[in-house]
Predict the structure.
Amino acid sequence: MCENKIIIMCGGKGKRLGNLTESIPKTLIKIGEKTILEMKFDNYMNQGFKDFILCIGYKGNLIEKAVEEFKFPFNCKFSDDGEPAGILKRLNKAKDLFEDKVILTYGDTFADIKLSLLSEMHEKSGNEATIVVAPIQNPFGLVEFDSRGKVTYFKEKPILNYYIGYAVINKSALELIPQRITDMPDGDGLITFYRILMAMEKLGTFYHSGLQMTFNTEDELKYVRRKFADFYTTKEDK
């Protein structure tokens, strides 16, 4: 039995999805036959996790109702800091619901990460937070140049590493952050929080090269639905 709690960020409005999120929150959008929230629960429980915290905001009542209807054998608590709250403020609001650390995941992101391994590596690292990074190939050549316009660096279609919305964060780290940073909007507070830990040399990484999907626009949602269908079709054929 896993002792770690998982916190799922479900408070955003998903404005860039247009009409799709006028009546439901982003995390209740269906990818295949299930909502992304239900897919996340399936994934986490299959890994042995049973304790969850949902940070809700926009149409949070619909998320609470959906969780009741899932009828999953888990423990789930809700934390609501209002619709305008940014990610760090929601996380800080929920810190009394977990002990020494929590596994953070975004409600609009799905990845086949081995969370127990992520948590174990974090514990051994001595870091205050460990963020999950994944590779992405930039489709363009990157160029740097000096004040004279002379090219100083050129790399064709480089592989870049980016943060995918999964992390393990110590409760003690949240207690280091001043209120003015906690109150920053959207993801600004969380990124500033990570930068502070980076300056302290207390921010680590966990590299993930497997499946990961997220969406912010209708076009990205269409792509994710195709990618998800292809992934599971391939798995069933093996």
In short: The first helix runs from residue 36 to 46. The first strand starts at residue 6 and ends at 10. The helical segments are 36-46, 60-70, 87-93, 115-125, 171-174, 179-182, 188-199, 218-237. The chain has eight helices and eleven strands.
